[in-house]
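Continuing the series of single-chain predictions for the mutant panel. This is the parent chain; the variants come on the following pages.
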Amino acid sequence: MREAMFIKKNVEKWNKYQHEPAADPDETAERFTTLIDDLSYAKTFYPRSKVTRWLNGLAASIYQNVYQNKKEKYSRVFDFWKYELPFIFKKYHRIFLFTTVSFALFVLVGVIAANRNPGFITEILGPGYVRMTEKNIADGNPFGVYSNESAFSMFVRIAFNNIRVSFLTFIGGFTGGLCTMYLMWSNGLMLGTFQYMFFTFSHEMGMKSILVIWVHGTVEIASIVIAATSGFILANGMLFPGSYKRIESFRRGVKDAAKVLICLIPFFLLAAFLESYITRLMSQTYQSKVPKALPEWGSILILIGSFSLILFYFVIWPIYLNKKGYFIQKKGIVSRLNLTNE
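Parent structure:
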């Protein structure tokens, strides 16, 4: 068959394969088989023809669509955590810095207020909680609050509460960040007052509280700050559209903020696990007449490990990827620029 006749006979079919998606997997398989037959014929009789290269490209595109998408089901989740989330967070590092500094200032306000007005502790934490803590200390069980219920029920309750608080800080972004700022203010005051309360009993008790409470508090508080960051990301997209239309900027802000919020779920689960099981063991270390359940060096290692995890994933790793020239294309595909200085 002459090449012109071969093209005329099949060109309509090939154009359809190129421009119209297949209706189902069976049709995709049929198209691929047909193209392979046509390509084999073209390679045999017209090996240097443009139509041969065209058919080869069509067959390759169907092959990649089938097998690359199959691989993506497994790699997409990995790339999301390894690349996409750090890239998003790198874009909002300034907002994260603002949120971190603001929360630290609110904690400091709580400490100063508690120092100048002893009644402020009772006002913020509630008289019942303060009396319970004083009684536990007098009974030689200063951190007995972590042993009042079963470990599993405590894990479920704390995980649910942490996720609820993070969701509220995210939703607060729809108010221009005002509700997010209020939640940061209230939680910061509570944390500063709570921590200062133990130092009012003695410096030794204050140091013990750090080794016990911050076993889980490092991940938990960092996650709350990052959740607040997601609220401010949303507010930033709504209030400061930049070169985008406001609705497009808002849409992008909501999308990025939601991804940041989703990434916090495993961190909140980790914090709940540490509080329900590990903090419980550490609290028993300071019970009178009870053998040490967890040595102090174990608590220190967990503190260092938790802080290093947060610092690496949300600060160091995003900066590293950015400097190395990695970037995200559409559909989450990871690419890398060819940098001349490497």
